[in-house]
Amino acid sequence: MDALQKQFESMFCPPLDSALVAAIVSDENNVNECFNILSSLAEEANSFLDAERENFGESEFSENC
Predict the structure, then answer these.
(1) Phi and psi for 21 in degrees, rounded to 5?
(2) Separation between Cα atoms, residue 1 and residue 10, nearest integer Å
(3) Do 61 and 52 form a contact (C-beta atoms < 8 A)?
(4) pTM value?
(5) pLDDT digits (tens, 9 = 90+) for 11-34
(6) How far from chain centre, in Å, is Cα 63?
(7) Distance between alpha carbon 56 and the CA centroid of its chain, in Å?
């Protein structure tokens, strides 16, 4: 596994899946652009998870799903 991919996985997994991180890192040659893409996706994923927690309650929602 590429060192850059490992670093991004440690930063963005969760909420992002490691396969998604790998796909973006392998497709994008610009490190800054990878970071921007992953940051944006992680922010959206966290917003979605926060909304899910509000809708279903903390006790009914597990981050380990």
Answers:
(1) -60, -45
(2) 13
(3) yes
(4) 0.71
(5) 999 999 999 999 999 988 899 999
(6) 13
(7) 22
